[in-house]
TrEMBL record:
Transmembrane segments: none annotated. It catalyses: N(6)-[(R)-dihydrolipoyl]-L-lysyl-[protein] + NAD(+) = N(6)-[(R)-lipoyl]-L-lysyl-[protein] + NADH + H(+). GO terms for molecular function: dihydrolipoyl dehydrogenase (NADH) activity; flavin adenine dinucleotide binding. Residues 346-455 form the Pyridine nucleotide-disulphide oxidoreductase dimerisation domain. Pfam families: Pyr_redox_2, Pyr_redox_dim. This is Dihydrolipoyl dehydrogenase. Its EC number is 1.8.1.4. The active site is at H444. PROSITE patterns: PYRIDINE_REDOX_1. One of its GO terms (cellular component) is cytoplasm. It is an enzyme of class 1 (oxidoreductase).
């Protein structure tokens, strides 16, 4: 069987690329080694984690905030099994939607492990041991990533776990030790803290969310501490050992002193690594870098001219929406169009509560680049909408060029900022100034008014409600 495009991997990058290529008239096949489509994001990542975040948020509000609204719920309880069951249904519905999209767009789906026979032929090895070979004029590698660990940590996937197992626990931990203060660790730590676990986050860097703006990290640390999460930053983990139902984590603090943490579960959330196992890249000479990522050019083309790679398997932020955009770019490029992607405008989001979102440059990046900039900040506490809902933590921060007023970065902590950040991304796509954003009429009362006010603070230093 011959195809114009074969996509290996059905995560957000892979399935979106297949859909777009089919829309543009290409004959497309997609290969997925698991029985459900959607990859890590839909099966054991973005979607199930958000389902548990929402369920735990409802419970946390019932315990801590309903009374403020005059709602009496005597001794709220939760059924963890039902939460997990709901999560599974959300995943099932979402992955089923991908199957529907493949049918709708006439994309042929093959279940099995895809590996290169040569540059145009892919062997599909099925679970029953049988195999078949299909041919593709162009092939897109979209095999994603797997959780990373540290070389001295033995993951037993029972008590010493990755995010995959953390989403499948059958009980709420008594004390969850999280190694890594990035997005995954904070989101999953938040889920179990809300449900009654003690949570300690151990982070090597001097701040959590180390790649985000320093003000964001500081604010998020403050609000999560208020929620009861404990942090040990500037701590380098040296060992993780399991003793029955107990896990002992040892680390050196910034003074070089050994510190011991003891819990019943340890979540290792130190990042993810590109997954190319079994692809047979060496057989066809596709180059990978020192981190195991597939090397590509500006068109996401590998050194083998008809083979492309997208998403977590290539360099850049490991984000589902980044993979989607790359999938569209490759599909359109192969159809003769001239797409583009601006990596500076891919938002980063943390789905704690309050949420965190950012796009563009941080202050530190601009300092390092010796760019003259100005900053406008506006507190969520000053918004009528925030006071009405009780979500007063956080701020919006707009960074603009000191000479031209062009917006260079926007950083937010607050209610629904995962959605609000796209206002900033749109503005920056069209190279808007802080004044442009400040002069747009925003609905009242809304959380989005904080964006307008922060933009005005950056533009002329005179927000209207602060």
């Amino acid at each position: 069987m011959k195809y114009d495009i074969i996509v290996i991997g059905s995560g957000p990058g892979g399935y979106i690329s297949a859909v777009r290529a089919s829309q543009l008239g290409k004959k497309v096949a997609i290969i997925e080694k698991y029985s459900t489509l959607g990859g890590t994001c839909l099966n054991v990542g973005c979607i199930p984690s958000k389902a548990l975040l929402d369920s735990s948020h409802h419970y946390y509000d019932a315990v801590n905030h309903f009374d403020e609204h005059g709602i009496s719920v005597e001794n709220p309880t939760f059924d963890f099994g039902k939460m997990v069951e709901r999560k599974a249904k959300v995943v099932e519905t979402t992955t089923g939607g991908i199957t529907y999209l493949m049918d709708k767009n006439n994309v042929d789906v093959f279940e099995g492990l895809g590996s290169f026979e040569d540059a145009t032929h892919v062997k599909i090895t099925k679970n029953d041991g049988s195999s078949e070979i299909i041919e593709g004029t162009n092939i897109i590698i979209a095999t994603g990533s797997k959780p990373s660990t540290l070389p001295f940590i033995s993951l037993d996937k029972e008590r010493v776990i990755t995010s995959t197992e953390a989403l499948k626990l059958t009980e709420v931990p008594k004390h969850l030790i999280v190694i890594g203060g990035g997005v995954i660790g904070l989101e999953l730590g938040t889920v179990y803290k809300r449900l009654g676990a003690n949570v300690t986050v151990v982070e090597y860097a001097p701040k959590i969310t180390p790649t985000m703006d320093a003000d964001v990290s500081k604010e998020l640390t403050k609000v999560l501490k208020k929620q009861g999460i404990k942090f040990a930053v500037s701590h380098g983990v040296t060992s993780v050992e399991r003793n029955g139902d107990e896990v002992i984590v040892k680390a050196n603090n910034k003074k070089g002193e050994e510190v011991t943490f003891t819990g019943d579960y340890c979540l290792v959330a130190v990042g993810r690594k590109a997954y190319t196992e079994g692809l047979g890249l060496e057989k066809i000479g596709v180059e990978v870098n020192e981190r195991g990522q597939v090397t590509t050019n500006d068109h996401l083309q590998t050194n083998v001219s008809n083979i492309y790679a997208i998403g977590d398997v290539v360099k850049g932020a490991m984000l589902a929406h980044k993979a989607e955009e790359e999938g569209v770019v490759v599909a359109e490029y192969l159809a003769g169009e001239k797409p583009h992607i601006d990596y500076n405008l891919i938002p980063g989001i943390v789905y704690t509560w309050p949420e965190v979102a950012a796009v563009g440059k941080t202050e530190q990046e601009l300092k390092d680049a010796k760019v003259d900039y100005k900053v406008g900040k506006f507190s969520m506490r000053a918004l009528g909408r925030s006071r009405a809902s009780g979500d007063t933590d956080g701020f919006v921060k707009v960074i603009a060029d000191k000479n031209t007023d062009e917006i260079l970065g926007v950083h937010m902590v607050g209610a629904r900022v995962a959605d609000l950040i796209m206002e900033a991304a749109v503005a920056m796509e069209y190279r808007a100034s802080a004044e442009d954003l400040a002069r747009i009429c925003h609905g009242h009362p809304t959380y989005s008014e904080a964006v307008k006010e922060a933009a005005k603070a950056a533009w002329d230093g005179k927000p209207l409600n602060a």
